[in-house]
Write a structure and sequence with these properties.
Layout: E1 17-34, E2 40-59, E3 64-69, H1 81-93, E4 99-105, H2 115-131
Parallel strand pairs: 3-4
Antiparallel strand pairs: 1-2, 2-4
Helix pairs in contact: 1-2
Length: 135
């Protein structure tokens, strides 16, 4: 039996996207003088280590974020760096940030191992893949 359904009635499920990001340790961090924009020039040498966070982005009716694991001190709201990344890419591509973000923390919080910034980068990569933005 063949069904001829109009295209609008076909629902294609969208799978969540998970990005695994490694922690890093600084082998060298040189901090230069304060620039006019309020930031310092940095020179760094770092090494990725086998300790990871995982960031999963899934379609949702509205934005939400959940932090799982070693999360003391990690904001579970719009102040989270992964959340800020989602809002930034959504604004850039002109769409609402309607996703559920799950951050599975294994990288120590405030340990200087780039957990927050790695999670933000993972959120950008996951949203780009989920939304097929090509960024």
């Amino acid at each position: 039996m063949i069904l001829n359904l109009p295209v609008a009635s076909v629902v294609v499920p969208v799978m969540p996207v998970t990005v695994r990001v490694p922690a890093k340790i600084n082998l060298h961090l040189g901090v230069g003088s304060l620039r006019a924009d309020g930031f310092h020039q940095l020179a760094t040498v770092f090494q990725a280590v086998s300790l990871y966070d995982e960031v999963t982005i899934a379609p949702a009716r509205q934005f939400g974020i959940e932090i799982v694991g070693a999360s003391e001190g990690v904001p579970a709201d719009e102040h989270n760096l992964a959340a800020k990344a989602v809002f930034a890419i959504a604004a850039r591509v002109g769409r609402p940030p309607n996703v559920a973000v799950t951050v599975r923390k294994s990288i120590p919080v405030a340990g200087g191992m780039a957990g927050g910034s790695a999670d933000a980068a993972a959120a950008l990569v996951a949203c780009d893949s989920l939304w097929e933005t090509g960024i």
